[in-house]
């Protein structure tokens, strides 16, 4: 095992380098298939594994800013050739049609004049808005009537240069607007064209304007999405339509290594589908703390089920609402307490048993939620502590190199194991959100079996990683960690695979309506 | 106050004095140092044939903001008196070329045509939604309390 895994590690080590080249190379539009790059410790399987896309993976491409600009240029050139118009006009038309090339060409063939007019394109050079001086002109905005330069768009509303500059700078700089800036006249929808913007604003603002225009290519395009990681500039292309988000969880990984859901931009939430994730997050925000507190501090009146907090006094409770008298300790009716008042030893008596059973029933839904929530929160918390674990592991790796004859590359398995652990905790976390909404049936039982297997394996791996290092047992530990890592990854794959297939087959039944 | 602002408001005042819609008034507040062009007192009459008729509703315009004083019973007026109207919102329908006259006419239109999609106060909104007769009655009462 150890020899094989050394080979594997060397292979893995050389692999990221070549990957990185591919990602950094801006001109390389190489397709990056989402893959569990750490899923195949078994070296012999590597090639076969990579050829086959797993059921829970989707195809996607990562684009750099330059790549996006180039794609845009290609589209623009294409349209400009077909329609026989200048590139800048083709670009404006495409933006107006939200980069829907087919629709643009179709409409243009029908009525080119109308399309050009609606998009604010003026092909006649003599008609291009220019700044000119008009004798006797008073700007309606600043009321300046001195010898000033003025400009009117195709609508004829004329304003002065100063006002145009103010207005455009405000729109571009403060509001981040670009292709939707309209004429300054009240109620006028004519778009301020790119040439006019260029004439009116300074270089810095114009540059920002160009950048914003480039962004609209991604913003307006359904199959493109910016990576939501802070200050990351890559965009992801993925062709999973919004309508199929109830049967697919399109998880993508950016070149910056951020993994997220293409459907909703939230961090990787496999295996749960977007709509359940949104519901769950909302529920947790609304309910968790309150529910926890209610569960910990209150009981319910045995008769009217009002929630009661005991904030002092003796165990003889009288419900404010229905006046039912009961014992706080056993929840049974107070009348049966006889002379043993204030010292309840009736916990097992029949009637108090009944009262508690009833209480338990009405609390079940709350408890059920808390069951899932606590496990969800636990994995989230554990994953948050991963920074610490990474630091600890770093130290351990150094320690191993010093106390044994293992080289740097031979201790990388530890880091790999932590990566796996964190990733699996993320997956586990969302399995609880998913399971909370699943209806109880055999499929759900199977899902929970898979969940339990993964959870057990994850906890075992976690324990192994927490173990202190004994120099004489390093090779034994290494073997255990490697084995467990592979096992954990396999369990994760089984779970994700089964869930994804279930989604496609519409096998899962939910307790809520996921279409609303 | 910037030069542009002052020139524009001076011109707006000149235009207003030359011609303005019937029943409206709009004038800068007088101070010891003359007129304060940034503070205007304006009055908006309710349209004839609506429950708002015979009332004149006072606003103070502290450019670029304006609010009803006292606050108005209307679904799109916040309890503070601020009006929720697209042409008053810079990121929605406001354009530099919109004049005071256009704004006041816009607010007058809003009086009898509230926009149920952007409620700003619950009292007026709820009554408007639930009981139009009681709502109209309340509006008539309000018009009576704000006579021309």
TrEMBL record, chain A:
Name the record gives this protein: 12813_t:CDS:1
TrEMBL record, chain B:
GO terms classed as biological process: protein sumoylation
Superkingdom of the source species: Eukaryota
Keyword ATP-binding: yes
One annotated GO molecular function: ubiquitin-like protein transferase activity
Domain UBC core: 4-148
Active site, renumbered: 84 (glycyl thioester intermediate)
Compartmental location: Nucleus
SUPFAM superfamilies: UBC-like
Entry's Gene Ontology cellular component terms: chromosome; nucleus
InterPro entries named among the record's database cross-references: Ub_conjugating_enzyme (IPR050113), UBC (IPR000608), UBQ-conjugating_AS (IPR023313), UBQ-conjugating_enzyme/RWD (IPR016135)
Stated name of the protein: SUMO-conjugating enzyme UBC9
Higher taxonomy: Eukaryota, Fungi, Fungi incertae sedis, Mucoromycota, Glomeromycotina
């Amino acid at each position: 095992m150890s020899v094989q895994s050394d080979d594997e590690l060397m292979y893995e080590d050389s692999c990221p380098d070549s990957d990185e080249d591919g990602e950094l190379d801006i001109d390389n539009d190489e397709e990056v298939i989402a893959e569990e790059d750490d899923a195949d410790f078994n070296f012999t399987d590597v090639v076969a594994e990579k050829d086959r896309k797993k059921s829970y993976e989707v195809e996607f491409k990562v684009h750099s800013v330059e790549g996006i600009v180039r794609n845009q240029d290609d589209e623009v050139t294409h349209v400009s050739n077909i329609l026989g118009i200048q590139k800048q006009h083709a670009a404006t038309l495409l933006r107006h049609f939200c980069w829907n090339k087919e629709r643009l060409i179709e409409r243009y063939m029908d009525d080119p004049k109308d399309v050009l007019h609606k998009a604010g394109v003026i092909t006649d050079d003599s008609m291009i808005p220019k700044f000119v001086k008009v004798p006797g002109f008073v700007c309606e905005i600043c009321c300046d009537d001195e010898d000033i330069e003025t400009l009117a768009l195709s609508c004829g509303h004329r304003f002065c240069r100063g006002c145009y500059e103010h207005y455009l700078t405000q729109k571009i700089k403060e509001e981040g607007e670009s292709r939707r800036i309209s004429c300054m006249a009240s109620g006028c929808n004519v778009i301020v064209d790119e040439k006019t913007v260029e004439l009116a604003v300074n270089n810095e603002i114009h540059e920002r304007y160009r950048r914003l225009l480039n962004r609209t290519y991604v913003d307006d395009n359904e199959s493109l999405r910016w990576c939501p990681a802070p200050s990351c500039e890559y965009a992801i292309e993925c062709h999973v339509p919004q309508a199929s988000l109830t049967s697919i969880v399109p998880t993508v990984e950016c070149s910056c290594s951020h993994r997220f859901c293409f459907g909703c931009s939230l961090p990787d939430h496999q295996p749960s589908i977007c709509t359940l994730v949104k519901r769950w997050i909302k529920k947790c925000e609304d309910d968790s703390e309150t529910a926890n507190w209610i569960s910990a501090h209150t009981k319910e009146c045995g008769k009217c089920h009002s929630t009661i907090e005991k904030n002092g006094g003796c165990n003889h409770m009288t419900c404010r609402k229905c006046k039912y008298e009961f014992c706080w300790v056993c929840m049974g009716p107070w009348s049966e307490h006889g002379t043993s008042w204030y010292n309840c030893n009736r916990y097992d008596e029949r009637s108090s048993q009944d009262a508690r059973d009833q209480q338990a029933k009405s609390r079940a839904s709350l408890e059920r939620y808390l069951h899932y929530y606590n496990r969800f929160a636990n994995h989230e918390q554990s994953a948050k502590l991963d920074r610490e674990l990474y630091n600890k592991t770093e130290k351990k790796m150094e320690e191993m190199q010093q106390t044994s004859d293992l080289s740097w590359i031979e201790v990388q398995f530890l880091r790999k194991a932590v990566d796996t652990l964190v990733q699996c905790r993320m997956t586990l976390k969302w399995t609880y959100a998913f399971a909370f909404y699943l209806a109880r049936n055999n499929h759900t039982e199977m899902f929970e079996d898979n969940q339990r297997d993964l959870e057990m394996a994850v906890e075992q791996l976690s324990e192994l990683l927490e173990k202190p290092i004994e120099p004489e047992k390093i090779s034994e530990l290494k073997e255990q960690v490697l084995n467990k890592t592979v096992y954990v990854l396999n369990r994760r794959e089984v779970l994700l695979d089964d869930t994804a297939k279930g989604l496609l087959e519409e096998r899962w039944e939910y307790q809520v309506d996921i279409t609303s | 106050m910037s030069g542009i602002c002052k020139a524009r408001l001076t011109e707006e005042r000149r235009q207003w004095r030359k011609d303005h819609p019937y029943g409206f008034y709009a004038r800068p507040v007088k101070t010891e140092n003359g007129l304060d062009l940034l503070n205007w007192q304006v009055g908006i009459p309710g349209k004839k044939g609506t429950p708002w008729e015979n009332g004149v509703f006072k606003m103070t315009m502290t450019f670029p903001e304006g609010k009803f004083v006292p606050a108005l019973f209307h679904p799109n007026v916040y309890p503070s008196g601020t009006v929720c109207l697209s042409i008053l919102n810079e990121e929605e329908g406001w354009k530099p070329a919109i004049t005071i006259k256009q704004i006041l006419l816009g607010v007058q239109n809003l009086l009898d045509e509230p926009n149920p999609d952007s409620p700003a106060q619950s009292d007026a909104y709820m009554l408007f939604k639930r009981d139009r007769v009681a709502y109209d009655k309340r509006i008539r009462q309000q018009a009576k309390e704000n006579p021309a």
